[in-house]
Amino acid sequence: MTEACKITSDPAIQKLIQLAGENGVELSWDRLAAQQPQCGFGQLGLCCRICHQGPCRVDPFGEGAQLGVCGADADTIIARNFARMAAAGAASHSDHGRDMALTLLAAAEGHAPDYQIRDVRKLMAVAGYLDVPTKDREIKDITKDVALKALAQFGQQTGELVYVKRAPKKRQELWRKAGVMPRGIDREVVDIMHRTHMGNDQWYESLILAAVRAGLADGWGGSMLSTDITDILFGSPVPLSARANMGALSEDMVNIVVHGHEPTLSEMILVAVQDPEMVEYAKSKGAKGINLGGLCCTSNETLMRQGVAAIGNFLSQELAIATGAVELMVVDIQCIMQALGPLTQRYHTKLVTTSPKAHIEGVMHVEVNEEHALEIAKQVVKMGIDNFPNRKKTHIPKDIDHMVVGFSHEYINYALGGMYRGSFRPLNDAVASGRLRGAAGVVGCNNTNSCQDESHLYTVRELIKNDVLVVMTGCGALACAKYGLLTPDAAKYAGPGLREICETVGIPPVLHLGSCVDNTRILTVLSQMASEGGLGNDISDLPGAGFAPEWMSEKAISIGCYFAGSGVYTIMGGRSPIAGSKHVTEFLSTTLEERLGGKLEFLPDAQEGVDRAIKHIDKKRAALGLPEYDAKRFGQSGDAVMMKVLAKRDDEVLNVYSAK
Ligand code: XCC
Q1: Does residue 297 have its Cβ closer than 6 Å to ligand 1?
Q2: pLDDT band at 632 (very low <50, low <70, confident <90, very high)
Q3: What is the dihedral of CA 444, 422, 416, 231, to 10 degrees?
């Protein structure tokens, strides 16, 4: 067993890893150790398995084979592998969006009686984007047309996706000129699967541009529709407080954990656990009630709308079971480790898969069905309650933190300007005056190859210290939640200008914007900032950057493609999957910027990532003619000294990751 403190920053996970080790329980880190040494060709992206003549491994930096059997060189092999990752990521996010649209349609047609339209205002806004008439029409008719128009975006064959008009005009023109304007969501994914088949596209440039186009189809298509429709069905998030980490599991209640990405069933489970009959039933089994918690992005969904506690992020999933306190884990789609199946057999935890797209051999499957959603949710919750008497000794770490979550772009608009003056003007003014140096999105996963949460925490702490406002989603947001960075109190870690804004508006310096698909909220914020005026007229003019410090999933590659394609300097941590090709690396980091104003770089060192991003932000400020950032100009308000004392004390007293 690897030393716990080197593989996670999370004290709760450290304790549980130790416990698992004592019990001989195998975890992802053990399996990673069993994979050593990892294949050097695969690590550099230089292995091709696209046809059945190989696998071919090429050696552009050495004396080995320079070409695959068909003649494909390192550039082609790497660009094809990268494009396929982007396609798989875009397909996953967007198919999630399709399922949300199908649920919306079922709700409108009366086939999903447990789902309502919880945000009519959002429905009207989305109807506007999709050119669905609303005047003198019934809500259910508008809903049906919105769902059908959304679904049509997936199968559209030609033209442009409707939502691209939400991007600045200049950006749309750049996409057309560069040939990356997305035509239809499914089409861009299939296009990559076709062009990467043996004997098709063999030029790294066009392969990478296809990856960017598929990413844009995800970001400005499938994922953006997913965010919008989820808000329509379950409500647009507004700030609320919640708890984070394993300490939110209960010693005396039935613990049910939802895990995955789609909120369709978890929202019903939330209703079911509050049903007085269910609570009474739990009491009849000796429990004090039912406690719901979440993992990964299903957690982000139930967290930001309902305040359901976040038990942990990606690398916490096995350890939640190792507490011995989870009666039931209900999983839907994406980021669910197959290891959960055998692991739950060593504990009393029951595991249930619910998506027709995500089965695990030997694991009970209860398929989600919109017609009987609440009934199915109650059936599943009952399984958890029935399992409570089987609970043995528990080991719930006491670690818990608090957070304020649920900052949709609509709420940011409102928070900064009020109901009648809502706009991004105050935010733009803060950047223009230098009170804020810039803004950054920090998103993405955990990765077993890097110390859990460490790079997220380092990146975010350094950015806010430099007066860069941070918005977060996914497992990165949950990482920061576990260390108190999503609270207004975290303003004490911020630079003077950002701290003053947080104190004035009452917001944390790190804003939780939701799950992975909600990275589209960041696109919307950027687009609105660019359109507001005063900071140029395109996303690439803004003093900002994007990070995925601990990424691991193919979805992160799609996200990287759509951020870079939208004009953002995007930095992904860890090992580079394109390291084996100088041309592909250069194309993504230099040529893309010349054509689209954004770029994608893989930088293993978090410090270097922050340094480069800040340099980039300052360069953008200079290009806009804004005053040079000066930390001393702001932040001399009354409690400045006290805040510094508090931040220092907290760094010492709490086990908070501190800057290198
Ligand atoms: Fe999965 Fe969304 Fe990554 Fe977390 S962050 S490990 S994709 S749950 Ni999107």
Answers
A1: yes
A2: confident
A3: -30
Which among 532, 523, 536, 530 is positioned nearest to 564, based on CA atoms? 523
Q: What is the mean pLDDT of the chain?
A: 94
Torsion of CA 171, 604, 492, 294, to 10 degrees: 80
For ligand 1, the distance from its centroid to the CA atom of residue 176, given in whole angstroms, is: 31
CA distance 38 to 35: 6
Q: pTM for the whole thing?
A: 0.95
Beta strands in 300-389 (DSSP E): 309-312, 328-331, 350-353, 364-365
Looking at the chain, the whole-number percentage of residues with pLDDT higher than 90 is 91
Both tokens assigned to 575:
């090992």
Mean pLDDT of 382-408: 96
Residue written as tokens 């719901």?
Answer: 292
Check if 259 has its Cβ closer than 6 Å to any atom of ligand 1: no
As a whole number of angstroms, the longest Cα–Cα distance in the chain is: 73
Q: For residues 233 and 221, give the distance between their C-alpha atoms in angstroms, rounded to a whole number.
A: 18
Non-local (6+) Cβ contacts of 502 within 8 A are: 488, 491, 494, 508, 509
Find out whether the peptide bond into 496 is cis, omega within 30 degrees of 0: no
pLDDT in tens, 115-159: 999 999 999 999 999 999 999 999 999 999 999 999 999 999 999
Which residues contact residue 1 at a Cβ distance below 8 angstroms, ignoring those fewer than 6 apart?
17, 21, 29, 30
557: CA distance to ligand 1 center in Å? 12
φ/ψ (deg, to 5) at 473: -140, 175
The tens digit of pLDDT for each residue in 410-438 reads 888 888 776 666 778 889 999 999 999 99
**Single-letter amino acid code for the residue at 130:** L
Q: How far is the CA of 296 from the centre of ligand 1 (A)?
A: 6
